[in-house]
Amino acid sequence: MRTTVRRHGIGPSLRHGVDVREARWDDRERRWHLETNDGPYSAPVLVLATGPWRRPRWPEVPGLTEFDGPVVHTARWDPSVRLTGRRIAVIGSGASAVQVVPAIQERAADVHVFQRTAHWLLPKPDHGIPGWLRAPGAQRVLRAAQYRVQEGLGYAFRHPRLVRPVEAAARAHLRRAVRDPGLRRALTPDYRLGCKRLLTSSTYYPALSRPHVRLHPTALAEVDGNRVIGADGSEAEADVIVLATGFHVGELPLARNVHGTHGRTLRDTWDGDGPQAYLGTSVSGFPNLFLLLGPNVLTGSTSTVTVVEGQLAHLTAALAHLRTAGKASLDLRPAVQARFNAAVQEALSTTVYNSGGCSSYYFSPSGRNTFCWPWSTGQLLHHLNHFDPDAYTWTAPGPTPACPVNEEEITA
Coiled-coil regions in this chain (predicted)? Predict the structure, then answer.
């Protein structure tokens, strides 16, 4: 990242340690005004690049705040916490747990993993890349092959009957890695593969099979002193609690503090059915606002980097059109947003994300899938790379602000 900053000379534009407290669209000036701990900022364009994996989810469990020892979330790791020779309780069994359990079990005296839901797990193809595969032509072939494998998974997720061979591979991986039939049963999911995020690891199952590691196939119910108690009544004594409980994925940071036309916030606009946007990028009623990794642009098999690059192409095309057309602002047409989201929800209804028999962070509290893209990555990139000016209303420049502050486009 430092190399990129130097190469493109963007260092003077960066502001570190700046918290955005409020953003408000001024319809008269056709500008965004921001209040921050670094003072006011003003700009014609606002980009929310805060991402969905930002605010850690802390479980609301009686006694957790009174635990006798350290409590650390995997997303806010405290390297000063001593793990060697200590009893550790890991809460959660998803992507974070799959990474952290193999790493800490080597040092811990005992590890107790509390698993509310078993996850589908495939072996991770993690190996060295020989020199001949680093040649540009070989790299392109390898990356194209990897892309096709991921898109093949995505196709199966859109046609749930096709996930059975992948489930068979996951079960074979479990049988090879775990000899204890009771532990295997506890680690076998009861829903279709792809309904939740598909995980990859070649070290998690072996770690759970170690004699000093115990799986508790139950949710955490209570903490009493140094006792960690599961919903099934099982207990473990712990010196450290590690929360591998993920993030508030569907809650866009700043949504309650970003005010569009008529002063309405993003949170108020989304209240009810949950977040909605057009191509995960534009929201009607919020002129010159762009989201990165907004609602309904990701899947269980698509690279987030690929999606962000497509959204940036869409964003830059919009800015270019603003400048060449001599306009000051663009605002997504409400009918375009409504049609797009209706089509997305209809297409999602037959995917494994919606019909696989599980609950996941893909859904808002209203029960609406606000995370997943229901078609191929190629279709998403096609839409993002073909900017449609007719999807927006365009406004001519307003009066020049009397005292422009920090005249720049802002990325929050």
Answer: none
CA distance 43 to 60: 40
In the block, tokens 């690059």 appear at: 309
CA distances (Å), origin 248, targets 35, 57, 77, 149, 265:
24, 6, 17, 29, 19
Q: What is the pLDDT of residues 245-281, one digit of tens each?
A: 999 887 788 999 999 999 999 999 999 889 999 999 9
What is each CA distance from 257 to 25, 253, 254, 287, 317, in whole angstroms?
11, 9, 5, 15, 27
Q: Whole-angstrom Cα distance, residue 105 to residue 314?
A: 45
pTM of the model: 0.90
**Domain closes at, from 243, 268, 301:** 243
Q: 209 and 326: one domain?
A: no
* Cα→Cα distances 118→98, 177, 217, 241, 242, Å: 11, 15, 8, 20, 18
The SS3 of residue 156 is helix
First to last CA, the chain: 17
Q: How many CA atoms lie within 13 A of 25 on its CB side?
A: 26
Helix (H, G, I), strand (E, B) or coil at 334: helix
Do 18 and 396 form a contact (C-beta atoms < 8 A)?
no
